Amino acid sequence: MILSGPDCTTMTEVRAGVDALDRELVALLARRFAYMDAAARIKPGREAVRDEARKAEVIANARAEAVRLGLPEAAIGDLWEGLVEASIAYELAAFDRR
Fold this sequence. Notes:
isomerase, single chain, EC 5.4.99.5, elongated, mainly alpha, 3 helices, Chorismate Mutase Domain, subunit A, Isochorismate_pyruvate-lyase, carbon-oxygen lyase activity
């Protein structure tokens, strides 16, 4: 049984929880990247893939949610910067495959 973080009393429990959560996060990322496949199919051309205004909006939204949840805003912003750039690269590759 996987315990929530506050309920863990051993490092074995913590590691099991982190490992389970990592599997869930990767599954969520697979869902997110499926949207990149859709975007590559829908957008009119390769030049439409990179949208700096949208990128800034997505990162700002993540930072705001981090603040709301009491998480480190800068760290979440950095994670989302990497996520968005990886998503753009994935979408460009998906567009090129089409």
